[in-house]
Amino acid sequence: MRSKILVLIIAVALIILALILFFGISKQINQLLASIPRVVEAELASRISRQVSVKSAKLANLETLIISDLSIADGKTFEQGTAFTAKRVIISLNFIDFVRSGNFVGSIKSVTLINPRLRIARDKQGV
């Protein structure tokens, strides 16, 4: 009888510990996911030397990143206008390659643009 009570106490303690760990990890994951749009904006802006705006970005699963309402400035900032927009960008990647190499760009399998718009203009010389 005592051994059953001890096993029950240990089981309850393990369940409580698992719940505490789950909610702690869940909170950290939510904080990380909330920062994805700012990370995407900063990374793209640094690579293309233009201001970038992202409404939201989320991981659909370990191999799919979905970016919503992506905008890229026509010049350094949006004061010169918007050169490119896409309602949604779906990036598929090889998660195992990403974990092994740490290279996000190198692990991309495909990029799908949904409702893209590109502004093309000519200067006074027609170029």
Structural class assignment = alpha+beta
What's the story with the biggest beta sheet? 4 strands, antiparallel
Q: Give the strand order, joined by hyphens, for the main sheet.
A: 1-2-3-4
Mean pLDDT, all residues: 83
Strand content: 25-35%
* Secondary structure: number of strands: 4
Determine the fraction of residues in helical runs and give it as a percent range. 40-55%
Label the overall shape.
elongated
Low-confidence stretches: none
Could you state the order of secondary-structure elements as H and E? HEEEHE
Q: Any idea what the radius of gyration is?
A: 23 Å
Number of helices: 2
End-to-end gap: 89 Å
Tally of distinct domains: 1
Question: What does this protein structure show overall?
Answer:
The protein is an alpha+beta fold and 127 residues long. It has one domain (2-118). It is 43% helix and 34% strand. It is built from two helices and four strands. It has helices at residues 2-48, 95-101; strands spanning 52-61, 64-73, 82-93, 108-118. Strands 1-2-3-4 form a four-stranded antiparallel beta sheet. β2 (64-73) and β3 (82-93) form a beta hairpin. It is elongated, with a radius of gyration of 23 Å.
